[in-house]
Amino acid sequence: MVVASLSPAVSWLVIGVLGLIWVGLGVYWGRKAKDSEGFMLAGRNIGLALGSATVMATWVTSNTVMLAPKFAYTMGIWGVLAYATASFGLFLFAPMAIRIRKMLPEGVTAGDFFRQKYGPAGWWMFITITLIYSMAWLVTMAIAGGELLNALTGISYHWGMSFILLVCVLYTLFGGLYAVVGTDFVQSLIILAGVVLIGVLVLGQIDLGETHSQLAREQPMLLEGFMPVALLSFFNIMLFGFGEVFHNNVWWSRTFAMRDGVAPKAFFLSGFFWFPIPVAAGFIALSAGSLGLNVTEANQVGPLVAEHVLAEAGLGMAGGLLILVVLFCSIASSIDSLLAATSDLVLKDGWKVITGGSLPEASFRKWAAIVIVGLGVVAWSLALPRWPLEEVLYASGPLVSAMIWPVIAGVYWKKVNVKVVLVGILLAVGCGLYAYYAIAWYVACLVSAGVSLIVMLGDQLFNKIQAK
Amino acid sequence: MFSESLFKLIVYVALGWTALAFVALLGLFVWDWLKKKIW
Fold first, then answer.
1. What part of A 152-191 touches B (C-beta under 8 Å)?
2. Beta-ladder partners of A324
3. What is the ipTM for the molecules in this complex?
């Protein structure tokens, strides 16, 4: 467990000021949202800088700064490199964004695509998978926020978790996507500068050569060039990233929200900006052994080592503040995006299913407020008992991986057999979940994406043979 | 096995790359601002 180096009073002051800044900026930028399109899609006018930043910041979650060090600690160098492959989904989404904008020039959510390509049944499959995944992601972010604040500052879990959620709900509520994108930009800069600063300060205190020698002596496995588990994780995480980015409305709504021609560049740049972060944030965990630290919770090894090293350097409070601010920004930048994108799905797609029509413009903001607050309350209720929902998040890997090929086919292929695609999704989810529980997490996405691919390619082959 | 020099190279490249991302993002913002294309 990380030993809190900041007093709760100082920490409340810091996160209180940060919270006020985010809410203030949300209100300020939110004034630009004059109608539903402004609120949900920031007027479809986001430029390259804010577009790249919002995609990158959303992809930097508490997992990036906590799981990446854990991967380094448990799987060595390949572990962090494996985590970095999550950026490949952003790279591959870049060319897809061109097609998506052409296919759906007036598109608002990913649901529009699934309804158009795969009909009501396909839409239901999509909405079920995406809501399970998005809520698990949202709740785990809230839980991580509460736990990190507790570990770093001594603020009680419940107060910390509630505060982070409240701040994100407030600024998303007031400013919609304008607020989310604007704050994401500021948060991106803080995250990037913070990761570099922490890394440089840590490098000033530890000797990488000594760390390497210690690892070679005590844990040579972490330096292995061929580590089967890490290599399987490499592909598994990559596929998880593909599935997540390809299907989730967080990324689709940004594609629709950027000005013409910006989305592909923004997704490519965000992948480029994000790629080194897991390595830069994760390498410090490899020093845990040479520093003689007792790591009882592997997912806190990153903050633990950073805080220990910075405290040794006489930067106890400043170091703690730096880590706190970076983690707060990482978590907020994902929670706000999930709140905005998921509420868009409920407002646009859910309303259509329930009423058969579109949400009237006059009552849009009222319903948007109800849905955003509602999502926040649901996430808060689920995070309150601190259920181990990370298990749900990891188990949703095969679910989102089952969407990779249906999305690719829907975007690129001329003809698809809807029934085969839907059966493929069900089979892929079933086999992937079986692999997750019967074998291990690091093969689940491989199995899911593999089954889906086989079913869809089999159908294409069958059609070609029939045509001949 | 990852040698010491390769290990160091990976760490330094990752930190340098992240620093470059920071500068690039700021640069993009200034560019968009000059062109009045932020929003």
1. 178, 185, 188-189
2. none
3. 0.96
Q: Rounded to 5 degrees, what angle do the CA atoms A191, A196, A199 make?
A: 120
In a domain, A437, yes or no: no
Identity of residue A454: I
Count of domains observed in chain A: 1
Q: Write out pLDDT tens, residues A224-281.
A: 877 777 777 788 888 999 999 999 999 999 999 999 999 999 999 999 999 999 999 8
CA distance readout (Å), A243 to A90, A418, A457: 11, 19, 18
Paired residues of A159 in beta bridges: none
Q: How far apart are CA A26 and CA A179, in angstroms?
A: 4
Whole-angstrom distance, CA of residue A108 vs CA of residue A88:
24
What's the helix, strand, coil split of chain B in %, to 5? 80, 0, 20
pLDDT tens per residue, range A413-445:
988 899 999 999 999 999 999 999 999 888 999
Distance CA A278, CA A66 (A): 9
Q: What six digits make up the tokens of A422?
A: 């839907």
Residue A15 lies in a domain: yes
A279 closest CB neighbour out of B1, B8, B14: B14
Which residue type sits at A323?
I
Residue A441 lies in a domain: no
Instruction: Tell me, yes or no, whether A29 lies in a domain.
Output: yes
At A36-54, the pLDDT tens digits run 999 999 999 999 999 999 9
Q: Residue A384: give its domain's CATH number.
A: 1.20.1730.10
pLDDT score for B11? 95
Checking phi first, is residue A292 left (phi over 0); if not, alpha (psi -120 to 50) or beta?
left
Domain range holding A87?
8-395
d(CA A424, CA A373): 36
Give the tokens for residue A304.
């633990």
Nearest to A190 by CA among A53, A391, A27: A53
CB atoms within 10 A of CB A462: 12
CB contact under 8 A, A42 and B1: no
pLDDT digits (tens, 9 = 90+) for B17-29: 999 999 999 999 9
Q: Do B18 and A208 touch (CB under 8 A)?
A: no
Angle between helices A364-383 and A316-344 (to 10 degrees): 130
The tens digit of pLDDT for each residue in A145-156 reads 898 888 888 899
